[in-house]
Amino acid sequence: MSFSFFATCPRGLEQVLVDELANLHATKIVRADGGVRFEGSMDLLYRVNLSSRIATRILFLVKDGFYKKEEDLYKAASCVDWDQWFDINQTIKVSTSAIYAPLKSLDFVTLRIKDAVCDFFRKKTNKRPSVASRDPDIKIHLFLNKNQYSLYLDASGAPLYQRGYRVSSVQAPIRENLAAGIIALSGWKPGAALLDPMCGSGTFLIEAALIAKNKAPGLDRMFSFMAWKNFNSQLFNQIKKEYVEQVKPSCFMNIYGSDRELSAIRISKKNLALAGLDECIKLSCSDFNELKAPAGEGVMITNPPYGERIGENQSLNLEYPTWASQLKSNFTGWRTYFLTSDLGMPKLMRLSPSKKTPLFNGALDCRLFEITIVAGSNRKKPT
What we know:
By secondary structure, this protein is α/β, with parallel strands linked by helices. Helix content is 32%, strand content 23%. The mean pLDDT is 92.
């Protein structure tokens, strides 16, 4: 039996998610802003949650259609057989998001959907489910645009980028699925050298090592669909066993990380240990400008400081030319990738990026600059 789903993801990674879903044999894949629609079986739902490196959460479509006013949405939610999915003794939470919705209050709409669910159970059992603002058993999500609605069950629960390995982090760490998406955009393949010279809490390094080990990122966590009445634990455990058997043994994966802050290296080591990846990655405490390339060629991926506080931009502007000199002196033959919200960074480095990929790091509008380091100047000669 085929169902409809929506997978959310960081904006800018939609095509990477499309490719991932295609590899999992999803059908009717449609790219949207901030996510991907697709269809498939419950088997696929389990597989996507366990194995997706890019998705933020997977939503299960229970009903969609057109609306004009709040009462239309109440009636639509009242027609769903909610007891097919969960029991009266399970807690619920309803949330709403919208784009160009003509309604006055999304909070009121959220309340009406909650009322519809509770009224459904009251008519059947003379009881109503309890609402829990934190850690509910069942999460219901309503999405609205100008005249259409989609009513979903959240199949993932906690965001899928929460792999379960990061207990310590530096200020403003990059999310795991964004890091995995950037690694995919870089074209890096396991076995090739990979370096993050400003590694912070080690997110790029750990995501690369998980890819190299062929370890599904969701093996160490729980999912919301496990609380549904139709959850097939036998099927889920069989799929999970398949993924566990595909994991490769830990060994050095030709992955390197460095940071000038000793505190960041200590945090990275903690996270590596928790992820069981101590043997896979080599760490060093060093300033970027003092690093030597660990191999003749490879991929460098990093998320440098953005200079969001007063005075930091001026300091970074002075650092950029030294980074460029370092790249040309020690990293000839490397493909380098910088994720930054400072759109003038390549110009100040006097290096021409071969690609500029728009990405969002949370709410920050960023660019992933690809700069291939060749002998001599990277700047394009005038025609």
